[in-house]
Each structure stands twice: as structure tokens, then as C-alpha cells.
Write a structure and sequence with these properties.
single chain; alpha/beta; 10 helices
């Protein structure tokens, strides 16, 4: 028996159940994807994007990486954002972290882990920049969870500072970038109230003029 047989069996049961509920579901799904949302989240297996927000396949465009980081040098993530914004015309980008994130925890410690150390460098920098703020929290877990929130807030800014998002605003395209966080212990998805939906919310240093305006 294949090592993956259990997964194939699960898939068959899932597909049959969906088809019973809506016989045309997969035909419609194959025809076009028109999600309103792009989810940028952590790769952690305990954070299933669609299930958390109760959306079906085709309703949520998803990008995941360790610690939900958005770097201006990451062509993978930027390509996802560009496709979602320019082609799919999503209206909402949901930057979602989670409490107890292992990647954020690693960035707080001095252990050397390998290639991922470079990936987590921006969170390590953030931890250093916020050291006085984080010191106000009594326990390591409280500091970790606060840094998870601060990381989301930073990534919302990073997304908003991209030319992709700003060009959408220049075109008058409705688009909002939201910062949210998920609690693995209680399953709740929380709004961090850092939504950015216009160029006016961006610091002047990061505002980009439309192409050809100069």
C-alpha cells in the first residue's frame, strides 16, 4: 500500500462530499478563480487559511512562508502579490500571523539554525528595535506574542510600501491591506486594527509617484 493511501482516501471522501452538496462545484471552480482576498500567512501546519475564515477553495488566494514575512527582495512573495492585485483584482490583502510562532521565537533567540537565520533577520532586527517595549512584558511568552503582533504590523507596512499596491491605488483600484493574528490555542482570528487602504496613510518617505509623472 502506498504511504500516501490514507491521504488519497481522504481526498476521495472530501471530493465526494463536496459534489453531493453542489454537483457543479468543481466545474465552476475549474472555469475561473475570482477571490476577493489574498492571504499572506505563516507556513505553520496548524494555521489552515481557508478553514480559519470559513472560505471554500477558489475564494482565498494564498501565500505562506515561515513567519509571514514580506521582503522587498523576495520575488516569490512579490509575484504572488502582483498577480493577486493586477490580475485577480483582489480587494483585500490579509497579512496574518499567529501567536506562538516558531519563526518569531527563533528570531528572539541566539541559536544558529542555518539558512533560515538569514530569512528571519528582519524579525531579529525588529526585536532589537522594539527591545524596550518588549521588556515591559513579564514573561517570555508574552514578549513572543507581542513580537508576533509587531511582526504583522511591520509586514502590513512592507506590503503597503510596494509599488504593486501603490500603483493599484494610483489607478483608483479598491484595495486594503489588513493586519490580523490567529490564536492557535482558541482558534480565534483577531483584527490588529492596522488597515491601510490609501496612499495618504503611507509615510511620505515610502510614497511612490505614478510611473511617468516626472
Amino acid at each position: 500500500m502506498s504511504d500516501l493511501q490514507e491521504l488519497f482516501d481522504n481526498n476521495r471522501r472530501w471530493a465526494e462530499a463536496i459534489t453531493r452538496q453542489d454537483p457543479q462545484f468543481f466545474a465552476k471552480l475549474a472555469g475561473q478563480q475570482t477571490p476577493e482576498y489574498l492571504w499572506i500567512g505563516c507556513s505553520d501546519a496548524r494555521v489552515p487559511a481557508n478553514e480559519i475564515v470559513g472560505l471554500l477553495p477558489g475564494e482565498l488566494f494564498v501565500h505562506r512562508n515561515v513567519a509571514n514575512v514580506v521582503l522587498h527582495t523576495d520575488l516569490n512573495c512579490l509575484s504572488v502579490i502582483q498577480y493577486a492585485v493586477d490580475v485577480l483584482k483582489v480587494r483585500h490583502i490579509l497579512v496574518t500571523g499567529h501567536y506562538g510562532c516558531g519563526g518569531v521565537r527563533a528570531a528572539m533567540q541566539d541559536a544558529q539554525l542555518g539558512l533560515i537565520d538569514g530569512w528571519l533577520r528582519s524579525i531579529r532586527d525588529l526585536c532589537y528595535e522594539q527591545r524596550e517595549h518588549l521588556a515591559q512584558f513579564a514573561s517570555e511568552e508574552e514578549r513572543l506574542d507581542r513580537l508576533c503582533e509587531l511582526n504583522v504590523i511591520q509586514q502590513v507596512a512592507n506590503v503597503s510600501h510596494t509599488s504593486i499596491v501603490q500603483n493599484a491605488w494610483h489607478r483608483g483600484q479598491p484595495l486594503a491591506v489588513h493586519g490580523c493574528i490567529y490564536g492557535i490555542k482558541d482558534g480565534r482570528w483577531k483584527d490588529l486594527n492596522v488597515t491601510v487602504s490609501s496612499l495618504e496613510q503611507i509615510p511620505l518617505q515610502y510614497r511612490l509617484s505614478p510611473v511617468g509623472s516626472r
